[in-house]
Amino acid sequence: MKQTYGDKIFSILNYVCLAGAAVTMLMPLVHLLAVSLSSPIAADSKQVFLIPIEFTVASWEHILQNKGLWGSFGITVYITVMGTLLSMLFSVLTAYPLSHKEFLVRKPIMFGIIITMIFNAPLIPFFLTVRELGMMNSVWALILPGLISTFNMIIIRTFLMGIPSELYDSARMDGCNDAGILFRIYLPLSKPVLATVSLFYAVGYWNTFQRAVLFIRDPNKWPLQMKLRAYLTSPEELAAVNMALGDYDFNTTTLKAATIIFATVPIILVYPYLQKYFVKGSMLGSVKE
């Protein structure tokens, strides 16, 4: 279909607006990267915008040699990978039966699940429950209490409801059980929504902060966001400034900028690999016939 002149103008405006939004979102990261690669004098005097001034990698050398930061990075990677896998498994196992009309009690169960979206558990009972289960100072306290997100589970359920019931009936006639139907038929057809929801879960686990504040007392078990918070609010957590002949190579300003980039970029790099599934999955998972 040939585009009209108005359609072309509309497309151009869309591209301009999207490009402007992308630049607006990227500028803070580029600015922080420039600060982390600049000299302390230029960073403290607010001379740096998007291009490093008096280029130096001293801050990055210090950050990458910080064993405590790498330890927190490893804990966060473990929480993100293990938490996403477990959350996806239990979300799918919950969504699958609730997507079938033949499941007679699905409406009262869904009502009870939706109630949790409206009324959250009070903080004090939540904390006491986790403590009584013996999960204080354990990475499992950052995974198990929020294993299933109601919103994400509903997205998966709605997507599964859109799969033709004839596939289910045919598989049952061929003697396939529910586990086989789920893992051999439904999940291969659900790659877009699975990739999208996996990304939602991964970002949530990567950014774990509130539960870490509540349940993790040992600094050696802090996830990356807790370590970043300590660096930003307590400059003494950063190493002492390196002095040489009355000058220095980095200070807390450049170290903070480098640490923020270090904690943010890894999860951003996941997006390009899931981009082709993201829009399709979120759209299909939000439509119900």
Automatic annotation (TrEMBL):
Topology versus the membrane: Multi-pass membrane protein
Main localization (coarse): membrane
Keyword line: Cell membrane, Membrane, Transmembrane, Transmembrane helix, Transport
Protein name per Swiss-Prot or TrEMBL: Carbohydrate ABC transporter permease
Residue stretches spanning the membrane: 12-34, 75-96, 108-128, 140-160, 181-203, 255-274
Coiled coil: none
Family: Belongs to the binding-protein-dependent transport system permease family.
Superkingdom per UniProt: Bacteria
Signal peptide: none
Domain ABC transmembrane type-1: 73-271
Places the protein is found: Cell membrane
InterPro entries: MetI-like, MetI-like_sf
